[in-house]
Design brief:
The protein has 4 helices and 8 strands, in the order ββααβββαβαββ. Strands 1-2-3-4-5-6-8-7 form an 8-stranded mixed beta sheet, with helices on both faces. By secondary structure, it is α+β, with helices and mostly antiparallel strands. The chain has a domain of 126 residues: Gcn5-related N-acetyltransferase (GNAT) (Aminopeptidase, 3-Layer(aba) Sandwich), CATH 3.40.630. This is Acetyltransferase.
Protein backbone atom coordinates (compact mmCIF):
# COMPACT_ATOMS: atom_id res chain seq x y z
CA UNK A 1 0.00 0.00 0.00
CA UNK A 2 1.10 3.58 -0.52
CA UNK A 3 0.74 6.68 1.63
CA UNK A 4 1.03 10.38 0.85
CA UNK A 5 4.55 11.65 1.43
CA UNK A 6 5.20 13.97 4.34
CA UNK A 7 8.03 16.41 4.92
CA UNK A 8 9.76 16.84 8.28
CA UNK A 9 12.25 19.37 9.63
CA UNK A 10 14.11 18.23 12.75
CA UNK A 11 17.25 19.94 14.10
CA UNK A 12 17.85 21.67 10.73
CA UNK A 13 17.57 18.38 8.83
CA UNK A 14 14.82 18.31 6.22
CA UNK A 15 13.61 14.90 5.10
CA UNK A 16 10.65 13.26 3.44
CA UNK A 17 8.97 10.04 4.49
CA UNK A 18 7.30 8.42 1.51
CA UNK A 19 6.34 5.06 0.10
CA UNK A 20 9.16 3.07 -1.48
CA UNK A 21 9.29 2.81 -5.29
CA UNK A 22 11.05 0.36 -7.60
CA UNK A 23 13.66 3.06 -8.33
CA UNK A 24 14.72 2.87 -4.66
CA UNK A 25 15.63 -0.83 -4.81
CA UNK A 26 19.38 -0.54 -5.49
CA UNK A 27 20.05 2.03 -2.76
CA UNK A 28 17.81 0.14 -0.32
CA UNK A 29 20.04 -2.90 -0.75
CA UNK A 30 23.06 -0.75 0.12
CA UNK A 31 21.36 1.02 3.04
CA UNK A 32 20.22 -2.29 4.60
CA UNK A 33 23.72 -3.75 4.30
CA UNK A 34 25.25 -0.64 5.89
CA UNK A 35 22.67 -0.49 8.71
CA UNK A 36 23.36 -4.13 9.58
CA UNK A 37 27.02 -3.26 10.09
CA UNK A 38 26.37 -0.16 12.20
CA UNK A 39 24.43 -1.65 15.11
CA UNK A 40 23.81 -4.89 16.93
CA UNK A 41 20.18 -3.87 17.55
CA UNK A 42 19.12 -5.60 14.33
CA UNK A 43 18.82 -9.35 13.80
CA UNK A 44 21.50 -9.66 11.14
CA UNK A 45 25.23 -9.15 10.97
CA UNK A 46 26.47 -7.25 7.95
CA UNK A 47 26.03 -9.32 4.79
CA UNK A 48 23.70 -11.93 6.29
CA UNK A 49 20.39 -12.58 4.51
CA UNK A 50 21.50 -10.12 1.83
CA UNK A 51 18.75 -8.71 -0.40
CA UNK A 52 19.91 -7.46 -3.79
CA UNK A 53 18.26 -4.89 -6.05
CA UNK A 54 15.93 -7.41 -7.70
CA UNK A 55 14.92 -8.75 -4.29
CA UNK A 56 13.97 -5.27 -3.12
CA UNK A 57 12.06 -4.65 -6.36
CA UNK A 58 9.95 -7.74 -5.62
CA UNK A 59 9.35 -6.68 -2.01
CA UNK A 60 8.37 -3.14 -3.05
CA UNK A 61 6.02 -4.46 -5.75
CA UNK A 62 4.38 -6.91 -3.34
CA UNK A 63 4.10 -4.31 -0.55
CA UNK A 64 2.63 -1.70 -2.90
CA UNK A 65 0.00 -4.14 -4.17
CA UNK A 66 -0.90 -5.47 -0.72
CA UNK A 67 -3.42 -3.71 1.52
CA UNK A 68 -1.70 -5.19 4.59
CA UNK A 69 1.91 -4.17 3.85
CA UNK A 70 3.59 -0.77 3.98
CA UNK A 71 7.16 0.04 2.88
CA UNK A 72 8.40 3.54 3.72
CA UNK A 73 11.69 5.32 3.06
CA UNK A 74 13.29 8.42 4.55
CA UNK A 75 14.67 10.68 1.84
CA UNK A 76 17.21 13.43 2.58
CA UNK A 77 17.96 15.48 -0.55
CA UNK A 78 17.12 12.51 -2.82
CA UNK A 79 19.27 10.17 -0.71
CA UNK A 80 17.59 7.31 1.16
CA UNK A 81 18.85 7.17 4.75
CA UNK A 82 16.48 4.61 6.25
CA UNK A 83 13.36 2.56 5.78
CA UNK A 84 10.58 0.83 7.65
CA UNK A 85 8.15 -1.91 6.82
CA UNK A 86 4.88 -3.18 8.12
CA UNK A 87 4.41 -6.71 6.93
CA UNK A 88 1.01 -8.34 7.14
CA UNK A 89 0.01 -11.94 6.79
CA UNK A 90 -2.08 -13.60 4.08
CA UNK A 91 -3.39 -16.20 6.51
CA UNK A 92 -6.95 -15.27 7.49
CA UNK A 93 -6.45 -15.95 11.21
CA UNK A 94 -3.54 -13.50 11.32
CA UNK A 95 -4.76 -10.99 8.74
CA UNK A 96 -5.63 -8.45 11.46
CA UNK A 97 -2.00 -7.74 12.36
CA UNK A 98 1.28 -6.46 10.93
CA UNK A 99 4.87 -6.62 12.09
CA UNK A 100 6.83 -3.35 12.18
CA UNK A 101 10.56 -3.12 11.50
CA UNK A 102 12.86 -0.13 11.04
CA UNK A 103 16.41 0.67 9.92
CA UNK A 104 18.10 4.11 9.89
CA UNK A 105 21.71 4.88 9.01
CA UNK A 106 23.62 5.75 12.18
CA UNK A 107 24.66 9.22 11.01
CA UNK A 108 20.93 10.09 10.88
CA UNK A 109 20.03 8.88 14.38
CA UNK A 110 18.61 11.62 16.60
CA UNK A 111 16.52 13.34 13.92
CA UNK A 112 13.25 11.60 14.71
CA UNK A 113 13.30 9.47 11.58
CA UNK A 114 12.55 6.22 13.41
CA UNK A 115 9.86 7.94 15.48
CA UNK A 116 8.24 9.42 12.38
CA UNK A 117 8.36 6.05 10.60
CA UNK A 118 6.53 4.64 13.61
CA UNK A 119 3.94 7.44 13.67
CA UNK A 120 3.26 7.15 9.93
CA UNK A 121 2.94 3.37 10.27
CA UNK A 122 0.57 3.63 13.24
CA UNK A 123 -1.59 6.16 11.38
CA UNK A 124 -1.68 3.88 8.33
CA UNK A 125 -2.53 0.81 10.44
CA UNK A 126 -5.25 2.59 12.41
CA UNK A 127 -6.89 3.95 9.26
CA UNK A 128 -6.75 0.57 7.49
CA UNK A 129 -8.42 -1.54 10.16
CA UNK A 130 -5.19 -3.21 11.27
CA UNK A 131 -6.03 -4.32 14.80
CA UNK A 132 -2.54 -5.14 16.04
CA UNK A 133 1.03 -4.05 15.34
CA UNK A 134 3.88 -6.19 16.64
CA UNK A 135 7.63 -5.75 16.80
CA UNK A 136 10.67 -7.22 18.45
CA UNK A 137 13.46 -5.22 20.06
CA UNK A 138 16.75 -6.10 21.75
CA UNK A 139 16.50 -5.70 25.53
CA UNK A 140 19.46 -3.29 25.60
CA UNK A 141 17.79 -0.87 23.16
CA UNK A 142 16.10 1.11 25.93
CA UNK A 143 15.60 4.22 23.79
CA UNK A 144 13.54 2.24 21.27
CA UNK A 145 11.61 0.39 23.98
CA UNK A 146 10.66 3.70 25.63
CA UNK A 147 9.60 5.15 22.27
CA UNK A 148 7.42 2.15 21.52
CA UNK A 149 5.80 2.35 24.96
CA UNK A 150 5.14 6.08 24.42
CA UNK A 151 3.14 5.18 21.30
CA UNK A 152 1.03 2.50 22.94
CA UNK A 153 3.09 -0.65 22.60
CA UNK A 154 3.23 -3.00 25.55
CA UNK A 155 5.53 -5.88 26.36
CA UNK A 156 3.89 -9.16 25.40
CA UNK A 157 6.77 -11.49 26.04
CA UNK A 158 10.48 -12.08 26.33
CA UNK A 159 12.55 -14.49 24.29
CA UNK A 160 15.31 -15.39 26.73
CA UNK A 161 18.91 -15.66 25.53
CA UNK A 162 17.60 -15.08 22.02
CA UNK A 163 20.65 -13.44 20.45
CA UNK A 164 24.38 -13.74 20.88
CA UNK A 165 26.24 -10.50 20.25
CA UNK A 166 29.87 -9.67 19.49
CA UNK A 167 30.78 -9.66 23.20
CA UNK A 168 29.93 -13.38 23.33
CA UNK A 169 26.98 -12.82 25.68
CA UNK A 170 23.36 -13.82 25.14
CA UNK A 171 20.62 -11.19 25.18
CA UNK A 172 16.85 -11.27 25.41
CA UNK A 173 14.47 -10.09 22.72
CA UNK A 174 11.42 -8.15 23.89
CA UNK A 175 8.18 -8.82 21.98
CA UNK A 176 5.84 -5.84 21.94
CA UNK A 177 2.37 -5.22 20.57
CA UNK A 178 -0.01 -2.31 20.08
CA UNK A 179 -3.74 -2.82 19.79
CA UNK A 180 -6.24 -0.73 17.85
CA UNK A 181 -9.54 -1.65 19.47
Amino acid sequence: MKIAQREYLVKDLSYIIRSATAEDAKILSEVRLRCDGETENLDREQGEAYIDESGFKRIIKDDTESSSNLFLVADVNDKIVGFSRCQGNILKRMSHKVEFGVCVLKEYWGYGIGKNFLIESINWADSNEIKKMTLSVLETNEKAINLYKKYGFEVEGILKKDKILSDGNYYNTILMGRFND
